[in-house]
Design brief:
Elements: E1 9-13, E2 16-18, E3 22-29, E4 32-36, E5 39-44, E6 48-57, H1 58-71, E7 80-90, E8 93-106, E9 123-130, E10 136-138, E11 141-142, H2 146-150
Antiparallel strand pairs: 1-2, 1-7, 3-6, 4-5, 6-9, 7-8, 8-9, 8-10, 10-11
Length: 152
């Protein structure tokens, strides 16, 4: 087994194992330093949000189309968890990366981008927002403090 890289990951969304051309999750944490008379004086907790983007080929996009058909429309797709799991090994020690994002709401940003001179696969770009109150777990550890989870 080798170190973790992009080929090491499986991603599950909407009940399907999806092969992705690229996948990202970004967290915005607006926590900031407090100050008194211009000097640092503690921490002010800020709001958090997360979003990401999945790029899939047409074969995998067809799985998402079928889920949208069952829901009645793309906008009608319910929120769902995205579970990204990768495993590797470094000098005999297992490396695991597991990111679980809750309540993901899918959109479409790049439905089609055709380049007649390209031999690359056609891809479809699907951004998403993380809307679930449990937010994101990273290797089983919540990004949010437990007292933040109780506020919701």
């Amino acid at each position: 087994m080798s170190r973790i890289n992009g080929k090491s990951f499986d991603v599950r969304m909407m009940g399907f194992k999806i092969h992705f051309e690229s996948f990202s999750i970004n967290i915005t944490d607006n926590t900031t330093a407090a100050s008194t008379k211009g000097r640092p004086d503690g921490v002010l907790k800020g709001d958090v949000s997360a979003d990401g983007e999945v790029v899939v080929d047409t074969a995998n996009f067809m799985l998402i189309i079928e889920a949208a058909r069952a829901a009645g429309s793309f906008q009608g797709l319910p929120t769902f968890p995205i579970d990204a799991y990768g495993a590797g090994e470094n000098s005999g020690t297992a490396e695991l990366a597991h990111v679980h994002a809750f309540g993901c709401k899918l959109k479409i940003s790049e439905l089609l981008n055709i380049d007649p001179s390209s031999t690359d696969k056609t891809t479809h770009t699907l951004p998403f927002d993380v809307t679930g109150k449990d937010f994101i777990l990273i290797n089983g550890v919540s990004y949010l403090d437990s007292n933040e989870l109780d506020l919701i």
